[in-house]
């Protein structure tokens, strides 16, 4: 039975979707399982219409551009009086985070199975011009497929409403553990998101193989202190990640990890190189190596929502609240508001603090790294 406090926005869709159950709550919205009027199940993410800003918009548009077996399939965006709703493929197997947590750590062959799919999915996204910027075990879902010994991996969550990197740090300390060092210190967003994704994939591989994070995240508080982030950054820059005792990983696996977790983004291994690395190519089905060429060429099916249509829908949603949501979209197209509602002051304060602490730490290697990547060459 529907509880009074559980929202059911799908009731407004005139039977297009009906709510089946709640799937979960994120920092910026909630997700429900819905059944469409042709009896298919979809995961539907609900974000408050007022929460739409340029980041949410970009991320929804990015997701809509992707069509690949290792990316959660975007279906459509629609509005209810209070929410913007993103309908997408429903992954039945939970997140890879829970899978790894349950097993403690994964055998090398199992980790490779997931990692190969992660990299092929990321390569497709990058070739479509989309960097995920929030790759982590929690954002990779599993699809159980009959006849397959292990679930398929699906990249999901294109950073809806949290594309700004330090906003992630503020909202969820855990995400910091996947963040590339150049992202942590960067002031002006001029890092390469695709190269940063490779770092995050390296952290994921490490966690799958060792059952722990390579660089401990700052403890406790919701908003981590700059000094704590600095300790983590120091380990990243010095490549001091812990190798737990008693865990055997092949030399090829360790070599790949080391190349992915290189602090200097320019020296970090690239996706094309990962895809020919001997650890990666072991047991790789021959068709997997070239599958992205076909997916990049494949046309979208008829009826696929076009970017302009999505933009128009979002624009309408931004302009109109519950009270006047029924105004036809054609009547609500006006210039986007200047203020997108995003308050960067806390993030900026943490970052400035971090850079100041780094500057005065006396650690030359750290200072050098910060100089090179903060976007402010005056720190010396
Ligand atoms: N396509 C999907 N299929 C199945 N479950 C999903 C799907 N998308 C999201 N979920 C589940 O819904 C829950 C909420 O997801 P959501 O993306 O809103 O937040 P989150 O990623 O858990 O947290 P945050 O927003 O803070 O990163 C999660 O448990 C997630 O696994």
Automatic annotation (TrEMBL):
PROSITE patterns in UniProt: PROTEIN_KINASE_ATP, PROTEIN_KINASE_DOM
SMART domains: S_TKc
Coiled coil: none
Gene Ontology CC terms, in alphabetical order: cytoplasm
Any Gene Ontology biological process: intracellular signal transduction
Binding-site residues, ATP: 45
MF terms in GO: ATP binding; protein serine/threonine kinase activity
Protein kinase domain sequence ranges: 17-280
Entries under Pfam families matching the protein: Pkinase
Top-level taxon: Eukaryota
Annotated CDD domains: STKc_AMPK-like (cd14003)
InterPro entries linked: Kinase-like_dom_sf, Prot_kinase_dom, Protein_kinase_ATP_BS
Keywords assigned by UniProt, alphabetized: ATP-binding, Kinase, Nucleotide-binding, Serine/threonine-protein kinase, Transferase
Protein name, entry field: Protein kinase domain-containing protein
């Amino acid at each position: 039975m529907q509880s009074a406090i559980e929202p059911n926005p799908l009731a407004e869709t005139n039977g297009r979707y009906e709510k089946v159950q709640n799937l979960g709550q994120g920092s910026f919205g909630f997700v429900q399982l819905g059944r469409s009027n042709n009896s298919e199940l979809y995961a539907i993410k609900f974000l408050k219409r007022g929460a739409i800003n340029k980041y949410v918009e970009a991320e929804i548009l990015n997701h809509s551009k992707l069509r690949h077996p290792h990316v959660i399939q975007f279906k459509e965006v629609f509005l209810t009086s209070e929410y913007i709703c993103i309908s997408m493929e429903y992954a039945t197997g939970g997140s890879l985070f829970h899978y790894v947590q349950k097993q403690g750590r994964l055998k090398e062959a199992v980790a490779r199975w997931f990692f190969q799919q992660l990299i092929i999915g990321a390569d497709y996204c990058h070739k479509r011009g989309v960097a995920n910027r929030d790759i982590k075990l929690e954002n990779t879902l599993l699809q159980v497929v009959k006849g397959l010994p292990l679930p398929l991996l699906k990249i999901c969550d294109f950073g809806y409403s949290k594309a700004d990197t330090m906003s992630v740090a503020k909202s969820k300390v855990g995400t910091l553990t996947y963040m590339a060092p150049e992202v942590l210190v960067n002031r002006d967003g001029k890092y390469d998101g695709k190269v940063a994704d490779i770092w995050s994939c390296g952290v994921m591989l490490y966690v799958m193989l060792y059952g722990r994070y390579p660089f401990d995240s700052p403890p406790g508080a919701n908003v981590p202190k700059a000094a704590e982030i600095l300790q983590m950054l120091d380990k990243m820059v010095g490549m001091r990640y812990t190798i737990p005792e008693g865990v055997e990983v092949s030399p090829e696996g360790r070599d790949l990890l080391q190349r992915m977790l290189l602090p200097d983004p320019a020296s970090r291994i690239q996706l094309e190189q990962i895809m020919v690395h001997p650890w990666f190519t072991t047991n790789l089905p021959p068709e997997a190596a070239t599958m992205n060429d076909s997916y990049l060429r494949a046309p979208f099916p008829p009826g696929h929502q076009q970017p302009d249509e999505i933009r128009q829908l979002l624009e309408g949603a931004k302009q109109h609240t519950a009270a006047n949501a029924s105004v036809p979209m054609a009547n609500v197209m006006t210039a986007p508001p200047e203020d997108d509602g995003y308050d960067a002051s806390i993030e900026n304060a943490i970052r400035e603090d971090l850079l100041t602490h780094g500057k005065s730490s006396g650690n030359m290697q750290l200072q050098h790294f910060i100089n090179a990547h903060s976007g402010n060459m005056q720190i010396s």
